[in-house]
Amino acid sequence: MTTSPFSLEGKTIIVTGGGIGIGKSISLECARAGADIMLCSRRLEHLEATAEAIRSLGKRALALPVDVRDPAQVNSVVQRTLEEFGKVDVLVNNHGASFRAPVENISLNGWNTVVSINLHGVFLFCQAVGKAMIERQAGGVIVNIASMAGVRGSQMMSHYGASKAAVINFTTTLALEWAPHNIRVNCIAPGPVETEGYLEVLHRTNPNAEEVYRNVASRIALGRWGRVEEIAYPTIFLASEASSFMTGTTIHIDGGPPRREME
Length: 263
Hints:
The protein is of the alpha/beta class. It has helices at about 20-30, 50-55, 70-85, 110-135, 150, 160-180, 195-205, 210-220, 230-240, and strands at about 10-15, 35-40, 60-65, 90-95, 140-145, 185-190, 250-255. It has two domains: about 10-190 and about 230-250, NAD(P)-binding Rossmann-like Domain (Rossmann fold, 3-Layer(aba) Sandwich); about 195-225, no CATH class. It is built from nine helices and seven strands, in the order βαβαβαβαβααβαααβ. Strands 3-2-1-4-5-6-7 form a seven-stranded parallel beta sheet, sandwiched between helices. The radius of gyration is 18 Å and the shape is globular.
């Protein structure tokens, strides 16, 4: 039987922020597609249940804590992956951080924290994994999870939008630099997706959260928020041979253009 081009059988994938929300879904769906998964995030307790669920699917999983801003910790995760799995075929940079505030109220420390996690963390993981891929001379895939906030901007989240815009630009540059090594680098920019973190921030910062939720949905062409698996499935596509002629691309997964653009 011919192997599906969407298969990830035999692949080893590092997923950052892999314990909850979009990262959890990416980890589980990639495992179902055949991959072994190295999960990492700042909180180990977020990872263990997901790792166990992956093992129940018959795939290997390892969970490690990491501060993506710390080069030593990032390099340690990559080195441990090489020791345990023998290789890294795919890196999914899914980690992220933000908070809602008007530009005039964001402190330099707050700005730097968000940019450091969202941008510097992507750089550090790409650099560490890229070196390993180049040395192995077998190619590889990197998928960066950005945001539509990095494409259109986002009120009350200027630091987040700026960092995600930088990730999109970095993806394009990296794709150009590493194409000679057969390392493909692509990006996914999700729109509003129902995750624990997003909804928690929404309810914590908005006394009328349910109304805000409905208003957001009403502005989306498809009329609803996205589901985590709707980001995971395109990640499988980009990680697999099904997208073998794609690099430097950012896929918008946002439910369509805002309704105001269609009127």
